[in-house]
Amino acid sequence: MEDAVRTLELLWGKAPAPRRGPNQTLTVDQLVTTAIGIADSAGLKGVTMRAVGNEVGRTAMSLYTYVPGREVLITVMHDHVHAEVPAPRKVADWRKAVTAWCVGLRDMYVRHPWVLEVSQARPGFGPHEQDVLEGLLRLLARAEVPLAVRPTVTSALYSIVREAAKRKVEALAESAQSAEWWAERGKALQAVAPDFAERYPESTAIARHQSTQGPQPWIKAAEDAFTGAITLLLASLE
Amino acid sequence: MEDAVRTLELLWGKAPAPRRGPNQTLTVDQLVTTAIGIADSAGLKGVTMRAVGNEVGRTAMSLYTYVPGREVLITVMHDHVHAEVPAPRKVADWRKAVTAWCVGLRDMYVRHPWVLEVSQARPGFGPHEQDVLEGLLRLLARAEVPLAVRPTVTSALYSIVREAAKRKVEALAESAQSAEWWAERGKALQAVAPDFAERYPESTAIARHQSTQGPQPWIKAAEDAFTGAITLLLASLE
DNA sequence: CTTTTCTCCTTACGACGTAAAGTGTTACCG
DNA sequence: CGGTAACACTTTACGTCGTAAGGAGAAAAG
């Protein structure tokens, strides 16, 4: 519980300043920004106290005078990057505005894929994350979606956005693989499941259909699935 | 790439049997089943090679004669539990059948919450996971959903199911907290953000509305959001 | 029978988060 | 003003992790 209180204080910028002792020469913000940089290039696994300490010119243990632990640092990082999500603009078509909200959040996740790996068991939201949710809720309020339906819609949209971001990150990573790599993988699958097509006719049909969609079909497929799902979901409202 | 081939072999039960040396006295299945038990009680973090080895009466290092590493063991575990998802039944109402598919998968995730933490970067599906996907695709085919729309629908449904499972797991965990814990948490938030209600009127309205829905409103809210989202999504198809 | 392959163990390494104790700095309070 | 408390920072250490490397013994191949 003490960590939860401390976490909320750090999230909302309300941590009491030290009153004695040597002056702090770093800020929590510096640690957070440094850790975000590391996560962006090496993933969440790269965010070790030693790595962050090394980059700011301190030892790992001295970071504990700023944050109570690694988990709290990650929680603050998580809220921090939500500041990058653009606030909704006033647009006549509320469905377009909701879609833009989804794209903005999805794009933030793609720029910082590690965010999707952060545990959702957190003491609460920080201000930036709360702003993002409030932005969506305002769009739904303006569209006169009933109050009782809003949690359903927000929940579904968050679901779609997060999974779409994961898929886009994966799709981009898969694009980096060579044709040889793909051929070997196909061969390996054929070796272990020679009857794949007979067993899974529908999955095979989808794969065949997608292979007619141009180069790197999985990128287009991920994008279509994302915007298509939003469109389907919003079509029901009204 | 060698690990990928080995992984696919293990997933599809096509790993070549050893031809010399002492006979293996364990099976990969035993390791997988043991590891699943550990994950179910202690989470994915509890699945260490030492923990699994200890339970089967071997050292951690000897497990490497069965699986090439911890990641592969987890991949096989992941496919294994997908066998618990019931195959779709023939029902006249295809929307009901799809909803049942979602509930079945969601329930599997809730029984094994660690599955949601398994990295999606895997060499490919195993048979059980492929069966689950094929089951859904067959429902969509029978409902005559256009081939090009099926990836969108499956992607969205997976999204909704996974996030709903996460929320249910969290909701159940939160139910275990005392009223005192909740009061302290509310106080802590009030202390760091005294102007919360003014800043976030829509979020506050939702919280107020949900607090009128009976005890432990977050459990009902998570369930409503799940079934509501499926309903909304399927309503657009036809 | 010798060689090869395999199961299993032992020892060890590098890495991780963080506890505990120590050193030096700054502010508080009597 | 001086002693004490709080604090930034370092050092040392601990327990834990995945897995590399090497060795011993078992079973099959040639």
Essential attributes:
mainly alpha; Arc Repressor Mutant, subunit A; flat; homodimer; DNA-binding; 238 residues
Under CATH at level 1, the class of the domain at 2-80 in chain A stands as Mainly Alpha
Q: What is the number of beta strands of chain A? A: 0
| Rg value of chain A | 22 Å
Q: What's the main sheet of chain A like? A: none
Describe the protein's architecture and organization.
Two copies of one chain form a homodimer. By secondary structure, chain A is mostly helical. Chain A has a domain at 2-80: Homeodomain-like (Arc Repressor Mutant, subunit A). Chain A contains eleven helices and no strands. Chain A has helices at 2-11, 28-42, 49-56, 70-81, 94-111, 127-142, 150-175, 179-192, 196-199, 201-210, 217-235. In chain A, helix 1 runs parallel beside helix 4 (70-81), helix 2 crosses helix 4 (70-81) and helix 7 (150-175) runs antiparallel to helix 11. The longest helix of chain A is centred in the C-terminal third of the chain and has 26 residues, at 150-175. The radius of gyration of chain A is 22 Å and the shape is flat. The two termini of chain A are 43 Å apart. Chains A and B meet through helix 1, helix 6, helix 7, helix 8 and helix 10 of A and helix 1, helix 6, helix 7, helix 8 and helix 10 of B.
Briefly summarize what is shown:
Two copies of one chain form a homodimer. With 238 residues, chain A is mostly helical.
